[in-house]
């Protein structure tokens, strides 16, 4: 018998969503207020003690945890703090420290006795969430106590908290790349989740663009001419929320357009009084002293890389935020 032929399946993206509940202190149930009260006391005790920095010498990140238990109907808390004596041997997170301490203090404790755990960074930004190892420990507790929750805070004032639910919802997406992953680039180290506007890999921190030295020098020279000599105020603006702006593709793909198409585009742009690629080339040649052939090729390369673009409705070529980041990065590496 011939084995059954299995039809090939298209690539599948699985999107997993997680949920956090934002709550105000005054709206909390009494059990959670009891836990927050003990965390406030723990944070005060930590600040007053001025602990030795040796215990957190690797990252300088201090994390406090308070575990809430219900043993024989009575609420009890157990403290935990992270420690980083040696990274090769692994650090101990605050959540796992509290869980281990609870077992040491209550030898007959069961997972069903666990209620919740609060986590706070007293000297750093909040909120923080459990690491991968702690998340696995928490999942094991939730098997016996489905209502177990993780509580973090938006600030050290602890007036507002985020309650994490480990329940996730997976949605299968066939033949569709999630919008926030479109345009991501893959580093040589294999990391695939670098955003389009990053010039350094988020994983290995290597520079994204590796050009031959003479090509890089020419591109930097031309980019500076476009940015400073021609359009000092034409850089693509960055959004006020701190997120990086998306590159705007040029209206014409000069790498693939035929000569006839390019000529027609030149005629159209001249009629409406805007700058075409050949005019931009001439201005850059005058500013840099480069040969016209080298300048035109470099401009086409910069368009392909989306370092420069002509936004929809604009009459001029502009340097994009990606091109600006490239200039900044090459200056730092110089």
TrEMBL record:
Gene3D superfamilies given in the database record: Cytidine Deaminase, domain 2
Cross-referenced InterPro entries: Cytidine_deaminase-like, Deaminase_LmjF365940
One Gene Ontology term of the molecular function aspect: catalytic activity
Region (Disordered): 231-269
Pfam families in the record: LmjF365940-deam
Coiled coil: none
Top-level division of the source organism's lineage: Eukaryota
Protein name: Cytidine deaminase
